[in-house]
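Sorry, can you check?
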Amino acid sequence: MSAEPSHPVPLRASDADREAVVAELQDAAADGRIDLDELGTRLEVALSARTLVELAPLTADLVPAVQPAQPLLLKGGMAGAVKGGSWRVPEQIRAYGGMGGVRIDFTRVECRLRVVEIEVDGQVGGVEIVVPDGWAVESDQVDPALAGLRDRTTPEKLPGSPLIRLTGTCGMGGVTVRHAKRGERRKLLRESR
């Protein structure tokens, strides 16, 4: 019989963990919840933290006292549904492909969330998700079902960019996650001028 350790070993903090805390602290300073001196002090600790235990107190008092927003619900129905352009990204999205499919386009949004959870059900029409370069996608919790999952994103995540966490099932229509295509990129470039 092996002896149980008397104290749990603190988990190591990753670069992503430190970056997420830095982003939350910067947001708190921008909102006026902490001043610049306190921001500097907390950033110094965050950047040198080795464990999650060291990071936790830095943002514990910054959690806003608001109820979480309702998930965004997108249903493809017979004609399909598209969420694109400039829109406020919620923490949770539920996308049901229906017969016409659902397309979610994040290329024109500003998103300060660390994680966006998307529950997909491809049904017959499928679900397509377009993310900017530098956004990471975690799709290992999606059931491929009949049509399967096509993840065409690159693994490189830019610091401070969101993680898209997918769950659910691909159904008969499938789920595709990708970056903007060449023509879409040209259109985005024209619009930004």
